[in-house]
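Q: Got a minute? One more chain.
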Amino acid sequence: MNEAVRRELPWWEILWRYSLFEAADSSWSLIVVSTYFGAFVQIVLGLPATAFGWSVTAASIVIALASPVLGAAADESGRRLPYLRISVAGVVLLTGLIGLAGSAWAALPCFMLAYIFANAAFTFFTAMIPAVSSERSVSRVVTMTIGVGYIGSLICLTLFGWLVPQSPNVGKVFPLMAVAYAAFALPVLLGSPDFPARAGYRLNLRAPYRRVRETFAAARRHRHLFFFLIGDFLYENAVASVITLMGLYSRNVMGFPTSELRAIFGPAIIVAVLSAWFLYSPLIKAIGPKRAVLFVLCIWLLVFAATDAIGPQTVLRLDSLVLTGRMLFVVLVAPLAGVGLAGVWSSSQVLLTALTPVEKSGEFWGLYNLSGRTASVLGDATWSGLLTLFGEGSAGYRIAVAGLALYVLLGAGFILSLPDVRPSRANFLGSPAS
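A: Always. Here it is, folded:
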């Protein structure tokens, strides 16, 4: 085993050799998925918002089916970086092509394929956590990485909003995002620690799916992991869908034009960065990842309740201070969502790390991403279906939000059943088990 991989990396090395990739992933999700592609679908392509939702759903199905193979490839070959490089190349190429597409028949497939590659890249990226952290540093590494991701998102949101101020020109954002994604990812692709390669590697395409069946069939042996995956599946139905729904909700219900979405996402990102760096790392260490997950799920229930309670005509009077619905959305809902977004990834990843032996990290992180992507399928299909059924008016969107809140409640029930585990040496590269 390479000594450079096993040694404890200082935070500044982790920053550029690992965490910086989160800036690529987070900014791509915010810019492409949350902000601009939905507007591109409606304003440029002239399609309903549900066309965007069903596109995300279809792409998520592919990711859900591919996740076991991606995790097995990482485990069996021992390497993560080669697969990460291929995935990044796919994201960069296809994202750039979205802006050049002149029709829905070209734009939607480019978006779906870019979405698939972006999620594949994230699978290999997260599976590298045991190579860059230890039982002492994992909370700090995860929260620092998430904070770096949100800073990258804020930079891109501010820069692209200035470069593309008018909604009809949203197609120009996608080539810019492709360049930004490549720039953030490149240092990690060239300098990140990786697991050692395994000789004689051959990927069996049937084995990963058989392994998934065996893992779920052996629920008693992996009971805590199994319950975590079910709980994560349920609450990620809601959280993953917020990423795709929030831009549409802000524009179509609250009346924010695309050029003003920075007013919503900017405060949310700033709060997310501060939460990731200064709240969740000490919180997870103090109360453990299980209680941290439950804390975050309470935040999300507040987000959904406030979203359904606040409309564009809402007026709140506090003595001489008058707050409109749009102002409340910016100063209350958006920051709460930022706290929730930073927390759900931080606490969930640390909890999964504590439940996972290092030699199974690729497989179990593949299952985690399978859970998340399957949840994304159901979550995006839920709100797309509800909008299709009840219409794309205010009532339809509010029903969709209420449906997502139900998933959070159900997921919290499964997390409550888990033990209060914390990361140990057995969860990291260089432990006796590895």
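A: The CA atoms of residues 27 and 156 lie 6 Å apart.
Q: Perfect, thanks.
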